[in-house]
Amino acid sequence: MHSKRSTALTLAVLLGGACLTTAAANATTAAAPANTAPTAVVHQATALPPGYQLVTLPNANVPNFQRRTLYCPGSKRVLGGGAEARGNDAILVGSFPTDDGRGWIGIGRQSAYRDVGISVFAICAD
User: Fold this and answer.
1) Rounded to the nearest 5°, which phi and psi values hold at 108?
2) What is the DSSP letter of 67?
3) Residue 97: strand pairing partners
């Protein structure tokens, strides 16, 4: 019963946000003179964090379930990351940050083979 209630609450919040966005867009359009085209709502991207760097650990074959770990250079910390398992029937088993927050880990496996190709990616910043 609890999950149904939290799902309903999540949907209500999302729908409420969509209604507010639609109302704001309609108010912007309604305020424009009749002879002009509606103005587009532009969201400006925030600046990248200081020292932003995308770091990659190229694909390499490792035994199934062996971790491949990529660390951020210097004193940078990981903001996010990911991994990719490559090969026939390759499955990505895990993709998560290191315990110290300085890198990213990728783990995979293949059913019919003893090894799997794993690539790891990390978004790092100061």
Assistant:
1) -150, 180
2) -
3) 104
